[in-house]
Design brief:
Keywords: Glycosidase, Hydrolase. Strand 1 (about 10-15), helix 1 and strand 2 form a beta-alpha-beta unit. Helix 1 (about 20-30) runs parallel beside helix 2, helix 1 packs across helix 13 and helix 5 (about 130-140) packs across helix 8 (about 175-185). The longest helix has 21 residues, at about 215-235. With about 325 residues, the chain is of the alpha/beta class. The two termini are about 15 Å apart. About 40% of the residues lie in helices and about 15% in strands.
């Protein structure tokens, strides 16, 4: 199945836990020409993330997509993982059958650079984990912003509470220095943050349709979702969850699902309580409609999002 804008050549950099799994399944069904997946630390350690990524790609019918492992820890702080959210194995401890495949390589930042050089101006980079691999790739190849088409990041919490600290969203907080490198790069980068994802948990109808689905993808998704639903039920007060990463992939594949605002931004890299916060200047006129979204220190954030269309496409990607 192709997306509404045809086939999109993308590379997904991930730390595959439960919402990453949904994102990969979504990508497979909606127009992603997935050239590779690169794996970083985050939800789980890199070896588990690679195993999970290979397994989900197999479920999605993408068993020829190469997976490359990368940064096993942040640039300037200790490793931190989220077993309490995604389970000890990262896929909800649901007893899934692991892929027999092995990663194609262990130098993910170099693979990002290699693919960008091989396909200049074509690739959309989609980062749905901490930004260490992208940060290192920028250090390896200063021309990387010229070589890729667009960048979409699931990250940040602009003007709303964080989910790992009072201010910080997990993917940015896990490696603030790498996130600042991504913000400072002169490329078109969209941050799909908690201000966009948290208002859009899965509705009871969406969950019922996944539960009732007989497609192997729906059965897989429903099994791994139980852990995620348990975690979010304690926080939302209802049995639901937020598919953060799949929203970012949806924006990458169909930018018209959203409207955007162009803003100056930076990442707080100090050692205080605001470390890992994506800070954007939201004052009227801080970046007008004619501002260059590719300038260094300028990002785009999502203002509105077509959640109904997204949910229908997510269900289709699961055969539900």
């Amino acid at each position: 199945m192709t997306g509404p804008h045809g086939v999109v050549p993308i590379l997904i950099d991930c730390d595959t836990g439960i919402d990453d799994a949904l994102a990969l399944l979504y990508a497979a069904a909606h127009g992603a020409d997935l050239r590779a997946c690169t794996v970083t630390h985050g939800n789980v350690p890199v070896p588990a993330g690679a195993r999970n990524t290979l397994t989900v790609l197999d479920v999605a019918g993408l068993d020829t997509v190469p997976v490359h492992t990368g940064a096993t820890r942040p640039l300037a702080q200790p490793l931190d993982v989220a077993h309490h959210v995604h389970g000890e194995d990262g896929l909800g401890d649901a007893g899934v059958t692991w892929s027999p495949r092995s990663p194609a390589g262990d130098l993910a930042p170099a693979e990002i650079v290699r693919l960008a050089r091989a396909h200049p101006g074509e690739l959309t980079l989609v980062a749905i984990g901490p930004l260490t691999n992208l940060g290192i790739a920028l250090l390896l190849e200063p021309r990387l912003p010229e070589l890729v088409d667009r960048v979409v990041v699931m990250g940040g919490a602009v003007g709303v509470p964080g989910n790992v600290t009072e201010y910080g969203e997990a993917n940015v907080w896990h490696d603030p220095e790498a996130a600042q490198l991504v913000v400072d790069a002169a490329w078109d980068v969209v941050f799909v943050g908690l201000e966009t994802t948290m208002p859009h948990p899965m509705s009871p109808d969406v969950l019922r349709r996944i539960e009732a689905g007989t497609d192997p993808r729906a059965r897989f998704a429903w099994a791994i979702l139980q852990c995620y639903l348990d975690f979010y039920e304690e926080r939302l007060g209802v049995r639901s969850c937020v598919p953060h990463d799949a929203l970012a992939v949806a924006v990458a594949l169909d930018p018209e699902l959203a409207t955007y605002r162009t803003v100056p931004a930076f990442v707080e890299t100090g050692r205080g309580p605001t470390r890992g916060t994506l800070v954007a200047d939201l004052r009227p006129g801080s970046a007008d409609a004619g501002a260059d979204a590719t300038a260094a220190g300028i990002i785009r954030i999502v203002e509105t999002f077509d959640i109904d269309t997204f949910h229908e496409r997510l269900l289709k990607s699961l055969g539900a």
